[in-house]
Amino acid sequence: MSRCLVKGIPIGRNEPVRLMGVINCSPESFYKSSYVTSGIILRKAEDMISAGADIIDIGARSTAPGSPPLPERMEIQRLDRALAELDGSGIPVSVDTMRAPVLERCLSHDIHAANDISGLLDPDYARLLADASLPAFLMASGDRPGDATTLGGTFTALETVSSRCADTGIHDYVLDPAIGLWIPERTTDLDWDLCRHFGEFARFGRPLLAAVSRKTFLAGPEKRPPEERLVASLGLTALLIAKGADVIRTHDVAETAEVIRTASLVVRRT
Within a 10 A sphere around the Cβ of 128, how many other Cβ atoms? Predict the structure, then answer.
């Protein structure tokens, strides 16, 4: 397996499982409790690092099903304000955006990775990454973010993303199998299928990101709201670590750090 380096932090190839803490600058988020207002971004990031996060992932645009569209200029403004609070802090920062102009603006700040749910669908975005030698977390996407509707389609989408990387000269990246209801055609059955077969995504020889924190498929038959999905998130996280997850993206850093510590002792990833 190839390794990926984010601000000197090695990911994959039997390195410790890394924890990516989510800072959400979007009040439209599906999980309202995760919203962080400007002015306290640095304190929140420092708290997450103290609680066990390795990388902070900052986003300003909700991508949950049914989310209202956000103008590009507003996403830039939100991220600009948030990143300005972290400049010079030394904290490893990833920016969660799939828009090239937004990424271009973020490159004027201290960022160390990009999280692209469109999997380099935009050639301009890919060129920015390559020119900046910026590591990336790239989600399985064909023509739209997370548009695979079957397990086989997910493998095909990840092959497409890997090909985009090769074509653009991007070598430092982590693959994300795209667990979640990204498009209306997807079902929670697919999410469970992706989790069952998570270990098979290792065939691409890249580190793997597991992003299941409080997502819809964890609601269960009771249709629990996001605020009541922590226990399910943590239990599934432990299982995905056993299946080879190299990075866990979460809203709940302290609790997830304990799961990673415990599960890593079993799978010998410490």
Answer: 19
Query: Could you tell me which of 242, 244, 196, 246 has the C-alpha nearest to residue 217?
Result: 196
Architecture of domain 14-267: Alpha-Beta Barrel (3.20)
pLDDT tier for residue 201 given thresholds of 50, 70 and 90? very high
Residue type, position 21, single letter: G
Strand partners of residue 18: 247
- Concatenate the DSSP letters of all residues of 123-170 into one string: HHHHHHHHHHT--EEEE-BSSSBT---SHHHHHHHHHHHHHHHHHHT-
- Is 80 exceeded by the pLDDT of residue 246? yes
Count Cβ atoms below 10 Å from residue 113 Cβ, excluding itself. Answer: 27
The CA distance from 232 to 217, in Å, is: 10
Q: Which two tokens stand for residue 82?
A: 């948030």
pTM, whole model, 2 decimals?
Answer: 0.95
